[in-house]
C-alpha cells in the first residue's frame, strides 16, 4: 500500500524544487468533479492527472471536468483508452471499438489507424491529450494474466506495424500516444499489480522480440513510452524496469534513441510498493530516467504530498540529481508545445468499430437457424487492468434467453435440462486460463455436440463443438458481430454507441 505521509519529512520545500517535484506527477482522484486539492496543486506545478472509469459519467461531464483542470494549469490529462477490453470512456457500457487482438487478427494497418484515429477524436472532444495506448507487447505467453487480447498478437513484426498505425492514428488528432509496456510485458506469467513479473530472456531475444514494436514506434514519432514493472535479470537485475537506469536510460534513451517523455506505469502496484514504497519508488524511477509518474488510483492527497516530499528529499540528499528533474520538466514542456500545434479536428467514427469487429471474426462449422436459443455465458474473473467492464450478448439479443453462470458453482445438469429442444450457445472469455470454465464447457459440449461456442478472449483452447467462433475480444462490437452471425433476425438494430 502507499506510504503514509507521516513517514516523509514535513519541513518546507524550496518553491522551485517543489514545482519540479510536483511537475513529475500524474495524480488520480475519486469522483466526477475535480477536488480542490488537485486545483491547488495544479497552480503549484502539478504535472497532470490520470483519469479512470470512476471519473467518467458521460462525454459532456468529462469535457467539463477536463475544462476545469485546464483552467487551473497547463496539465497532461491522460487515461487508458485501448479500445476492446480496456476502456475508460465507456467503462460503464463497454467500448464501441474492438481491441488490439481483433485488429491484429484482421491485419489491416489502415483499419487499425482508422480505429485509433476515431478513438482519438472522442478523446480530444473530451479534453484528453495523452492516451496510455497502444499496447505494444508481443504476447508470447498464452497464460499471460494481464496482456492477452490487449496485444496485437504474438509476432513481433505484426505487432510493430500495428503499433505504428495506432500511434499515427492517435497523434494525427493531437492526442499523444503512450506506447507500453517497455521493455515488454508479453512473456510474463505474473500480474505486476500483484507482484514483480519475470521476463527471463537474453538481450538478443529482447532485441528480436520485445523491442521490435518499441523501436518501430519510436521511429514513427511516438511522443511517450510507458515503463513496465517487469524484472529482466540480464538487464535490470532484481529491480523492475520502471526503476532501472539500464532499461530506461541505457536501453530506451541511448540504444533506441527515444527523446520523448517516459511515463511510469502506475506506482501504486505491489510490484513497486511492496519492496520500495510509493515515495521511494517515485524517486528511484525518476533517477532511472522516467519523466512523468503515474501514481495510480489508490494514493490519497496525503500520499501525493508525501511523494512530493520524498522526491525533494532525494534531490536534497543527492540520490536524485536536480538536473534530472529539470530534464523531465523540459521534456514535458516539449510535449505541451506539441499539444498546442494546430490540427484539423478528428472525426468521430464508432461505426468503424463494428465493421472492424465483423472482419475480426473467425469461425469453424456452419451456424444453424436458431430454435428458441439459450445463451450461457461463463462468468470470468476480471483482471485489474480491465476492471468490471460489462460484456456479453445481452445488449444485442431479443427473443433469446441469456444466462450468466459461474463455473465451479453452477453445474451442467440444470443448464442441459434448460436447453432441451433448444439451440445452445456457450460464451466464454479466455477458457484456456480457467480450468473450471473448460470443465463446464467440456461437459456441456459432450452432451450437446451441436452447441455453438463463442470465445471472447484468445482462442487457445477449443472444445469439440459443432460451431466455434473467436471474436478476439469482449467489447460491445465483438459481441454484436458474433450475435449477428449466430442469430440473424434476432439481433437488435445496430447502434453506434
UniProtKB/TrEMBL annotation:
It comes from Spongiactinospora rosea. One of its GO terms (biological process) is carbohydrate metabolic process. Keywords: Glycosidase, Hydrolase. Residues 43-334 form the Glycoside hydrolase family 3 N-terminal domain. PANTHER family: BETA-HEXOSAMINIDASE-RELATED (PTHR30480), GLYCOSIDE HYDROLASE FAMILY 3 DOMAIN PROTEIN (PTHR30480:SF16). This is Glycoside hydrolase family 3 protein. GO terms for molecular function: hydrolase activity, hydrolyzing O-glycosyl compounds. It comes from the Bacteria. The keyword Hydrolase applies. Belongs to the glycosyl hydrolase 3 family. The keyword Hydrolase applies.
